[in-house]
Design goal:
single chain, alpha+beta, five-stranded antiparallel sheet, 6 helices, 12 strands, 25% helix
Length: 273
C-alpha cells in the first residue's frame, strides 16, 4: 500500500504545535511528594454507661436525647441510675432507622419501661402509682455515623414538673411500703382539672394515687363504657377507704395520650389525701 506523503503545510503545523506544547505553559508543575499520607486516626465509639452506674443529672440533662456525663459513686447524691443497656434495633423492612425516628423511639419506650418494671420488681400498672420514670439515651448523630448503636435506660424520679428527686444508694426496697413511699404519686389540685399537677408525695399535695385500674388492651382510648366501669371500680375503692363515713370523694383518670400510645393500659384512682 502506498503511503501518502506529508505536505509542507501539514509538516509546519505539526512543528508549531510541538513548540507550543514544550514552551507555552509557564505554570510550575506540582511536585509529587514521596512521603506517604498518614492514615486517619480511629477512635472507637464511646460505649453506653455500665448497668448499675449512677449519675447526678439535672432535669434538662435527663430530658436530652444523648448524655455523656461521667458516672459517680452511688454513695454520693445522684438523680439517675442506669438499669439497662443494649443495642439499637434500627432495621425495618430493609431500611436503617435514624436514632431519633418515631419508630426507634417507640421501641425504646417499650424496652425501657418493661425493663424498669423488672428492675423495680413491680408490675407495669403499679408504676402508675409512683413518680419513677424511665428515660433513655442514644448516641449523638456524630457518634452514630462513627458506628455507635447503643441505648441506655436510666431510672429517675420526678419531684414535680422540671425537678428530679435524689435516689437512694441501693435500689432494693426503693418502692417502699404501700402508701408510705416518698416516691409515691400524689396530686396538687383536683385530678382532671386544668391546673392539676402530679407530684411526689414528699411535697405538699391534696390527692393521692391510690390504685391502678387496668384497662383491657383492645379498648379505645377514652371509651365511655370503660370510663364508667373504671369509675365504678374507683368508687368501690373510695367506699372501702371511707369505712362508715358515707361521704367520700374519688376521681378516676385515664393515662395520658402519650402514655397510651407507649402501651400503658392502666388509669389511676385518686382519693383525697
Amino acid at each position: 500500500m502506498r503511503q501518502r506523503a506529508i505536505g509542507p503545510t501539514v509538516l509546519a503545523l505539526l512543528i508549531w504545535m510541538s513548540l507550543l506544547t514544550a514552551c507555552g505553559n509557564d505554570t510550575p508543575q506540582a511536585q509529587v511528594s514521596s512521603t506517604p499520607t498518614p492514615a486517619p486516626s480511629y477512635s472507637p465509639p464511646p460505649p453506653a454507661a455500665e448497668v448499675g452506674s449512677c449519675h447526678d443529672l439535672t432535669y434538662q440533662q435527663a430530658t436530652a436525647a444523648t448524655q455523656n456525663s461521667d458516672p459517680i459513686p452511688c454513695t454520693k447524691p445522684h438523680t439517675s441510675r442506669t438499669f439497662a443497656t443494649g443495642t439499637l434495633d434500627q432495621l425495618r423492612d430493609g431500611h436503617l432507622l435514624a436514632v431519633d425516628s418515631k419508630a426507634a423511639q417507640r421501641n425504646l419506650t417499650t424496652a425501657c419501661t418493661d425493663r424498669m418494671a423488672q428492675f423495680l420488681g413491680a408490675r407495669t400498672p403499679e408504676l402508675q402509682l409512683t413518680q419513677f420514670k424511665a428515660i433513655w439515651f442514644t448516641p449523638s448523630f456524630a457518634q452514630a455515623d462513627d458506628g455507635s448503636n447503643w441505648f441506655r435506660c436510666d431510672l429517675v424520679a420526678l419531684k414535680r414538673d422540671g425537678e428530679l428527686m435524689r435516689l437512694p444508694s441501693a435500689p432494693k426496697g426503693i418502692l417502699g411500703r404501700a402508701g408510705d413511699s416518698p416516691y409515691a404519686t400524689c396530686g396538687a389540685g383536683t385530678p382532671g382539672s386544668a391546673d392539676f399537677k402530679k407530684v411526689a408525695c414528699a411535697v405538699a399535695h391534696q390527692w393521692r394515687a391510690t390504685k391502678a385500674i387496668e384497662i383491657p388492651a383492645k379498648t379505645r382510648y377514652l371509651d365511655p363504657a370503660q370510663t364508667q366501669s373504671a369509675d365504678a371500680s374507683c368508687k368501690d375503692v373510695a367506699a372501702g377507704a371511707a369505712g362508715s363515713n358515707l361521704k367520700f370523694r374519688w376521681v378516676f383518670t385515664w393515662p395520658t395520650k402519650q402514655q397510651w400510645h407507649s402501651g400503658v393500659r392502666a388509669g389511676i384512682c385518686w382519693l383525697p389525701a
